[in-house]
Amino acid sequence: MRMRLALLMVGLSVVARGDVFLLPTANRAIYEPGQEEKFFVPTPGKTWTSGTFGCVRTEGWQIHEGLDIRCLQRDKHGEPIDPVMATADGSVVYINIHAPLSNYGIYIILRHQIDGLEIYSLYAHLEEVRAGLKVGQSIKASDVIAMMGRTSNTRQRITPDRAHVHFELNFLVNDRYAVWHKIALPGEHNDHGEWNGQNLLGIDPWAVLLAQHKQGDKFSLRQFVVSQPEVCRVFVRHTAFPYVKRYPALIRPNPLAEKEGVAGYELALTFNGVPFELIPRAASEIKSKARFQLLSVNEAEEHKNPCRRLVIKRGSHWELTAHSTELLQLLTY
Ligand SMILES: [Zn+2]
């Protein structure tokens, strides 16, 4: 009996090999086409797509930056009790145990180093964090880190039928966020230091999981990220901002800039503002003296995913918006 169990476990580990990201709960319906309703929890009165990542809220004009994953297990009072597990090996960087401080309620952020990229997973609306879990602690993929719940500080509570874990995969914009926030947003209280939601930019975890599921061992997070559709390209007249140091794997070499010296970076942004390609540029390649310059807009992508409003068309030409300018200020601070 013991032998058979051991064999079974070997079998499972063979199947799991190559999966960089694991699902954060036992709900696996995401891998069964047509079963999306069993995986995603919609907002009241809407279809399952409102529980996915992207411009899926408020008629497409509001972002939902993660996946709302349906609960599978309940106690006798109907409360969710699904264990929530780490999606990948990593370490704990933030635990918010004060539910009233966030619309995420009780939540955990883990840091992972995958394919040369620092990526942050976030698990929200938890009932409780696993006893003893501490910031700085190392975590293995599939380690239980919490129990699912319904915590949030929103006026409209998460009803039991909508019980879910909100799951994100994020890039960190700037580890000097807390200092920037004080100066840039003086009236706004910041309860979460550099772990403020404004400092985390999400990519679509569903797309990541499906790509990985399809490609198996060939899946590369870096390849996935650099293949994202861009909504625009911008030039920033800054050379040594933290993002460049944190994400060297996203830099596309430019021999001219290496020869003449780097005057700034050209950035490709996803509709959600994630800089996913950084090209060093020489002064001779840049005409404008502006600190931030919009270089191009992918109108098809902008029409498809307009909810972050990074660019706006005035008359016949496109401009950066107040939102994207603020994002670039934070990025280069
Ligand atoms: Zn959510």
Quick synopsis:
22% of the residues lie in helices and 29% in strands. It is an alpha+beta fold and 333 residues long.
Question: What oligomeric state is this?
Answer: single chain
Ligands present:
zinc ion
Order of helices and strands: HHEEEEEEEEEEHEHHEHHEEEHEEH
The first-to-last residue Cα distance is 60 Å
Number of H- or I-type helical stretches: 9
Average per-residue pLDDT, rounded, comes to 93
Q: What's the count of strands? A: 17
Q: How would the global form be characterised? A: globular
Uncertain regions spanning at least 5 consecutive residues: 1-16
Sheet having the most strands: 9 strands, antiparallel
Task: Please render the helix and strand layout as text.
Blueprint: H1 2-16, H2 36-39, E1 54-57, E2 62-64, E3 67-70, E4 83-85, E5 90-96, E6 106-114, E7 117-129, E8 138-139, E9 144-148, E10 164-172, H3 177-184, E11 200-203, H4 205-215, H5 221-226, E12 232-236, H6 242-246, H7 255-260, E13 264-269, E14 275-281, E15 292-297, H8 299-304, E16 311-314, E17 317-320, H9 322-332
Antiparallel strand pairs: 1-2, 3-10, 4-9, 5-6, 5-8, 6-7, 7-9, 7-10, 10-11, 12-13, 12-15, 13-14, 16-17
Residues 64, 66, 68, 166 line the site of zinc ion.
Task: Walk me through this protein's architecture.
The protein is an alpha+beta fold and 333 residues long. Helix content is 22%, strand content 29%. The protein has 9 helices and 17 strands. The strands form 4 sheets. Strands 3, 4, 5, 6, 7, 8, 9, 10 and 11 form a 9-stranded antiparallel β-sheet that branches. It has a 4-stranded antiparallel β-sheet with strand order 14-13-12-15. The longest helix has 15 residues, at 2-16. Bound molecules: zinc ion. Zinc ion is lined by residues 64, 66, 68, 166.
